[in-house]
Amino acid sequence: MSDRLKELAATKAASYVQDGMVVGLGTGSTADFAIRALGARAEEEGLEVQCVPTSDASARLGESLGLDIQSLEDQPVIDLTIDGADEVDPQMDLVKGLGGALLREKIVAAASTREVIIVDPSKVVDRLGTRSPLPVEVVPFAWSLAQMRLMELSRLADLRQGSTGETFVTDNGNFIIDCHFDEAGIVNAKELELAVNAIPGVVENGLFVELADIIIIGQDDNQVRVIER
Ligand code: 5RP
């Protein structure tokens, strides 16, 4: 999907940021546009914000743009976070984590007064689990047990591989198991979120239920669609 639509949504989201705010930086190609938009506002308008990144990659990008990067330890209350998503449903619930940052993304979302999600139209679905697998972060020691249990909750549970065929490792030193569902997708996201997190060795999963406050969709007509909870 075109970068232009991602950038449209990202620029709109960055316009919500005000001087002095603590801002959560999401992860992924769409969130990168928001980080760049914030960097541009800092340079052009002198906007001063403190930023809590959801991944090492977003921390590096923010730093390279001169943004003030802080830890969640130092800034446990975040005014506004801008992040991408892999799926958004009509209830504003999400699947996240194809980029592998779901654990920190979910923690930062929970610490945020407002969670702003920016997407292009390809991410909008009628039901979660129909476009994207559900990523589940597991501790390496437990991955094979977790995979077995996840197979009972999904059609297929695949240990994620990196680009060169090795097991993908998250910023937290964990593995990811991607759970695929049949055409009907995920029937009850809240129930599934709890069931997945009850498996020993599962650290977190990519279902974001009732966490998004604002969804911004970049559209083909150069407009953005803003949906508020
Ligand atoms: C990373 C994420 C990303 O927000 C999600 O994968 C969307 O990424 P992109 O904007 O590159 O499509 O959840 O863990």
What features would you describe in this structure?
The chain is of the alpha/beta class. The chain folds into 2 domains: 3-124 and 209-228, Rossmann fold; 134-204, ACT domain (Alpha-Beta Plaits, 2-Layer Sandwich). The protein contains 6 helices and 14 strands. It has helices at 3-14, 29-45, 56-64, 102-110, 143-151, 189-197, and strands at 22-25, 50-53, 68-69, 78-83, 87-88, 94-95, 112-119, 134-138, 156-159, 175-180, 202-205, 207-208, 214-218, 224-228. The chain has a 7-stranded mixed sheet. Strands 9-10-8-11 form a 4-stranded antiparallel sheet. Strands 5-6-12 form a 3-stranded antiparallel sheet, with helices on one face. Helix 2 (29-45) links the parallel strand 1 (22-25) and strand 2. Helix 1 crosses helix 2 (29-45). The chain is globular. The two termini are 26 Å apart. The model has no long low-confidence stretch (mean pLDDT 97). The site of ribulose-5-phosphate has 18 residues, from helix 2 and helix 4.
